[in-house]
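Retro notes, structure queue

What went well: the backlog is down to a handful. What didn't: a couple of records were mislabeled last round, so from now on we paste the full input next to the output in the thread. Example, using Tetraspanin-8 from Anisodus acutangulus:
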Amino acid sequence: MFRVSNNLVGILNIITFLISIPIIGGGIWLSRQADTECERFLEKPVIALGVFVMLVSLAGLIGSCCRVSWLLWVYLLVMFLLIVLIFCFTIFAFVVTNKGAGEALSDRGYKEYRLGDYSNWLQKRVNNHWGRIQSCLQDSKICKTLIDDGSSTKVEDFYKKHLSALQSGCCKPSNDCNFTYVSPTNWTNNSTSSLTNPDCNLWSNDQNVLCYSCESCKAGLLDNIKSDWKRVAVLNIIFLVFLIVVYSVGCCAFRNTRRDNSYKRYP
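Corresponding output:
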């Protein structure tokens, strides 16, 4: 007798199969429309994810609806490995994002970010790939709003601005430098400037350079990564519960399929 669990697994896998189609389509669209190296970098992982979801969905769908035991076994094995992988990644994400936060400054609407405050593992990853990351940040025009403001922003108004972590780290010099404000992306080095912070020597008023090579820019990126990873970790927990439920139903479907096949083989 065909079981409810088999129908439920079939329905769930039809849904995930349909979800995989726009994922693959998005990857193909990226490959044709991407203008920057950063966008092209996402192309292959997105397509690979879509194909993986599609193949797993087909295995679960055919295995449950056509009562193919070995396909259901493969489906359950992949699901189990996926659950373990997501569980490990979630724990890892919480551990590596546990350190680091922006430093609040008096009379400033923005925070300062220091690379040494963040996880050593994240620091190494960012340092090893900074050339590509820096190019991506420059292409993303994160400093465009500050550049467009030009000299129209008064110093007191600028200090009250609520800058993002990347804008604070990449688009202006560090507060330690004590540079004299001219405009949001134009600062003057003077005799009272402190150059103990290595970022002070890296700052440039060139709109294409600014502080993209600074450690504060890397720290701003890590603060963004930290926030994003924490959100992903929370979503992973929800997804993990969903996968465990699907895996449990799949186990029931597998057991029912083997039992039904045994009845057919030995009437």
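Agreed that this is the format going forward. Reviewer comment attached to the example: The chain is about 65% helix and 5% strand.
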